[in-house]
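Good morning,

Attaching, inline, the C-alpha cells for the sequence recovery test we're adding to the shared suite. The designed sequence is right after.
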C-alpha cells in the first residue's frame, strides 16, 4: 500500500520505486540484495530463518509488526545476523504505542524518519560491520 496509505506520513512513491531505490543503493555499495515484502508475519519469520547461512545481514522494516511481533524478534535473535531496522516515518514522534519496537531489540541500529534514504543508510551501516 506504499504510496496509497497515508501519503502524508509514508510518501507518495510506490513499492516498485522503493525496490529500485534499494537495488541502486546496494549496487553503488557493491552489495547484492534480495528485497522481499509480505503482509504475513509467519512468512517474514520464515524468510528471516532462511537467511541464516545465505546472507551477511538483514535490513528489516517490520511495519506494524514492529510493535507486536515477538516472533520476529525471536527469529532475528535466532539467526544472529547483523540486522538493521528501518522505518520510513519517524515513529518516535508518533503515537505512544509506536514507541516499543520488539524487532529493534534484536537490531544493531534503527533508521527512522529518513524515508527511502533510511534503507541506504542501513546498507551503509551494515558495510561498516
Amino acid at each position: 500500500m506504499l504510496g496509497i496509505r497515508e501519503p502524508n506520513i509514508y510518501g507518495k512513491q510506490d513499492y516498485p520505486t522503493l525496490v529500485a531505490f534499494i537495488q541502486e543503493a546496494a549496487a553503488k555499495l557493491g552489495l547484492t540484495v534480495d528485497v522481499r515484502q509480505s503482509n504475513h508475519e509467519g512468512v517474514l519469520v520464515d524468510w528471516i530463518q532462511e537467511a541464516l547461512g545465505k546472507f551477511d545481514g538483514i535490513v528489516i522494516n517490520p511495519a506494524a509488526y514492529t510493535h507486536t511481533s515477538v516472533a520476529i524478534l525471536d527469529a532475528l535473535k535466532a539467526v544472529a545476523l547483523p540486522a538493521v531496522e528501518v522505518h520510513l516515518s519517524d515513529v518516535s514522534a508518533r503515537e505512544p504505542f509506536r514507541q516499543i519496537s520488539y524487532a529493534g531489540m534484536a537490531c544493531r541500529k534503527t533508521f527512522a524518519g529518513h524515508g527511502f534514504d533510511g534503507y541506504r543508510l542501513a546498507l551503509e551501516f551494515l558495510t561498516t560491520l
